[in-house]
Amino acid sequence: MKQKDVSERSQLVLQALVKRYIQEGAPVGSSTVRQEAGLPVSAATVRNIMSDLEHRGYLHAPHTSAGRVPTAAGYRLYIDSLLQVDMPDAATFQALQNELSPDRSSRDLVQVTSNLLADITAQAGLVTVPRPDSAQFRQVEFLPLSGNRVLVILVLNQHEVQNKIIHTHQEFDADQLRSAAAMINERFSGRSFQDIEGIIAQELREAKSRIDRYMEETLAFANKALHVGQSSTEDYLMAGESRLLESASPEELEHLKSLFQALESKKDVLHLLERSSAAEGVKIFIGEEAGFNALGNFSLVTAPYGDGKKTLGVLGVIGPKRMEYSRVIPIVDLTARMLSQALSN
């Protein structure tokens, strides 16, 4: 149903009911709604309006003698048409500004952001880790170790440094490693790992066709060394899962186990986040709208972040369907903007 299908009086009733349910987490009766909305009508009239909203699918009664609670469709109408957001306060802005420093590596920024979202919203915060092919190669250095081992010191983007030991099929001396590093830095600095992977694969084929053993070995070594930048297996970082337990109602506690299992398996959650990365601004998945059962009693509020040139990932907050959307939505939006600013600097 669209907003135009619901009368102004019905909208006021729905708005009052959702706000009270978010505050208390218990079914809301007609007298409470009448008082909350300030309507100059009888409780019986409000009951009739609530019955009509229930018939339309915006409310439902969990027990025959209880009040009503909003459905996913009710939350959707409330969020899309009736919600009045509260802009983040000065303390929230300052906390984000202090922690999301451009001097941090992208990895640190992702970790800090998930913690900030959890702390500020009192829900669970998650941030996808930028894909390795979105990182930009800057510089590499090699140090020979004992045996056929080499220490790779890899600089990504502006500040991020990764160290890893690789095993080679032969022993290289310091001069050979300096020469290899110079060649790699000259040819690939400033490129994404996705571009580098394609270039090396093409040039390896050409070197083999020319029977250029030296170039083939150098490129194979470069491929192994630069693969360090693509070694991360984490898809997203999450913080604040315990906060879901602390704020959960008895009904929500029953469904948390399946939610945690879905978060651990990642497949469905990553599918939602992938959909969010293609959107502009904040996107909200309410309960069963998300398309998988584990999120049935919860909502996910997301926003994409980037580096000023392209989208690098998505951040968001998971909480009960009755989360305080008026506060959470602008916080998610502001955090995405500030993380993007830190990464672009």
UniProtKB/TrEMBL annotation:
Recite the UniProt keywords alphabetically: Repressor, Stress response, Transcription, Transcription regulation
UniProt-listed InterPro entries: GAF-like_dom_sf, HrcA, HrcA_C, WH-like_DNA-bd_sf, WH_DNA-bd_sf, WHTH_transcript_rep_HrcA_IDD
Q: Where is the signal peptide?
A: none
Instruction: Please name the GO terms that the record assigns under molecular function.
Output: DNA binding
Which SUPFAM superfamilies does the annotation name?
GAF domain-like (SSF55781), Winged helix' DNA-binding domain (SSF46785)
**Biological processes, Gene Ontology terms:** negative regulation of DNA-templated transcription
Q: What NCBIfam families is this protein classified in?
A: hrcA
What HAMAP family has UniProt attached to this entry?
Answer: HrcA
The UniProt entry's sequence similarity note says:
Belongs to the HrcA family.
Function of the molecule: Negative regulator of class I heat shock genes (grpE-dnaK-dnaJ and groELS operons). Prevents heat-shock induction of these operons.
State the protein's name.
Heat-inducible transcription repressor HrcA
Q: Which gene encodes it?
A: hrcA
